[in-house]
Amino acid sequence: KKKPRGVMGAEIWVKIGDPPPGNEKDCVFLTLDAFTPYVAEYDPADAGKTAHYMIRWRMRDGSVSAWGETVSATITG
Questions:
Q1: CB 16 within 8 A of CB 47
Q2: Tell me, what's the pLDDT at 9?
Q3: Contact status, residue 13 vs residue 30, Cβ threshold 8 Å
């Protein structure tokens, strides 16, 4: 899908393991992605754990959007 006008890319933050993050302070920065899809690679030791992703737009002027909904997925190994 096309990113909104003025957007540099999507900031992707992740927290591995439960419980899900309460806010972005529980996460670590994963990447600033300008193209989709983004594929993250994890250590084999993380297989079976849940990765919780928080995403927001980063604009070219340095501002950021509100956070989207947290999305979770099981890491495969």
A1: no
A2: 95
A3: yes
Task: Confirm if 48 and 77 have CB atoms less than 8 A apart.
Answer: yes
pLDDT over threshold 80, residue 42: yes
Strands 50-59 and 71-74: antiparallel
Query: Residues 20, 33: contact at Cβ < 8 Å?
Result: no
Whether the full predicted model's pTM is greater than 0.85, yes or no, is yes
Give the model confidence (pLDDT) of 44-64 as tens digits.
999 999 999 999 999 999 999
For residue 45, what is the DSSP state?
G
Residue where the block lists tokens 């990447």: 31
Report angle CA 49, 76, 33 to the nearest 5 degrees: 90
